[in-house]
């Protein structure tokens, strides 16, 4: 039979591990939030010309991705066999 002290030890160990894990996750979330705010602040401090250039670069990348996806969709549609219509 398991003694009361063994049960207490297991519960206490599990509780400490859960609290530690929760604290680590919470701290990591706070750090990510802080880093995101700092990155946003850097972007807002850039001159307008650099911000516009960055947005144009991002737009060009997105347009390229869009064209690639549209090409893949067209390839899939052309490979798809035509569906035969049942005759009554």
UniProtKB/TrEMBL annotation:
The alphabetical list of record keywords is: Coiled coil
Q: What sections of the sequence does the record tag as coiled-coil?
A: 52-79
This protein is called what?
Answer: Uncharacterized protein
In the record, what lineage is assigned to the organism producing the protein? Eukaryota, Fungi, Dikarya, Ascomycota, Pezizomycotina
């Amino acid at each position: 039979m398991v003694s009361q002290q063994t049960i207490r030890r297991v519960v206490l160990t599990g509780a400490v591990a859960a609290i530690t894990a929760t604290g680590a996750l919470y701290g990591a979330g706070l750090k990510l939030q802080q880093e995101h705010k700092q990155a946003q602040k850097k972007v807002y401090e850039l001159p307008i010309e650099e911000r516009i250039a960055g947005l144009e670069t991002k737009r060009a990348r997105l347009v390229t991705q869009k064209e690639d996806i549209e090409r893949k969709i067209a390839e899939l549609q052309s490979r798809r066999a035509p569906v035969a219509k049942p005759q009554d």
